[in-house]
Amino acid sequence: MSYSIENSIKGKVCLITGGTKGIGKECARQMAKMGAKVIVIGRHEKGLNEVEEELKLSSPESVAIKADISSLAEIKEMFLQVKNRFGTVDVLVNNAGTNIRTPAIEVTEEEWDTIINLNVKGAFFCSQEAAKLMDPGKVNKIINISSQYGHVGSSNRSVYCTSKGAVELLTKSLAVEWAPHILVNAVAPTFIETELTKGLFEDEKTRKSLLERIPLKRGGTVKEVVGAILYLASDLSNMTTGSSLLVDGGWTAGS
């Protein structure tokens, strides 16, 4: 019996939203190196062209598609392209997301819609369209990138926490409804050191405040989050559905 993550991802059609930077980009790289046919989704042409060129070095059939997943029309058009090119999706990673830090009393409708439409609406309708293409004779995977803030509250993040809490229950609901041929799980990271969080870690006061909440006393790495995604995408996790894998250094355990 093989216990290789790489062997069980090889040849699969893996679609990753928000795949031009950070966690999504590294996930795409590793899946391509393992022999998957990777589809990267993003909004910016330059980033898409760069990541597609890189992925094709490892996996020539990989492709990047421009789409804004806060728009249902663009989601449907994106999946039509996927259907025409690949015919199916084996693994969906709902990675695209955003946050706007605002005190709850000051949140605008525009800020609410921006966060909820990308983090929740996008994840739901990408899952719906992917499910239509997934082979009912196989074990398929949907992996939602959630957050520790889908499990605990935080000041100035009321809408973000709401969106990630929704992602957590979306994960459970779809897991129950779509079993046994689609397994749906979430990965919930703490603060991960990326270009987007660089400013937080460079500010000494903020860094100290964050690390005091994490029992492991450090931020997470992109590699550690991608490791969790690859496990859930592989056959090693075929008895796991409806779960949220916390990659938070113990933050929520102590909350």
List keywords for this structure.
7-stranded parallel sheet, 255 residues, alpha/beta, 9 helices, globular
Helical residues, percent:
40-55%
Low-confidence segments: none
| Biggest sheet layout | 7 strands, parallel
Distance between the termini: 40 Å
Number of helices: 9
Average the pLDDT over all residues and give the rounded result. 96
Strand residue content: 5-15%
The backbone outline, from C-alpha atoms, is: globular
Q: Give the topology string: H per helix, E per strand.
A: HEHEHEHEHEHEHHHE
Order of strands in the sheet with most strands: 3-2-1-4-5-6-7
Question: What does the secondary structure layout of this molecule look like, with pairings?
Answer:
Elements: H1 5-9, E1 13-17, H2 22-33, E2 37-42, H3 45-58, E3 63-66, H4 72-86, E4 91-94, H5 109-133, E5 140-145, H6 158-178, E6 182-189, H7 198-202, H8 204-213, H9 222-233, E7 244-247
Parallel strand pairs: 1-2, 1-4, 2-3, 4-5, 5-6, 6-7
Helix pairs in contact: 2-3, 2-9, 4-5, 5-6
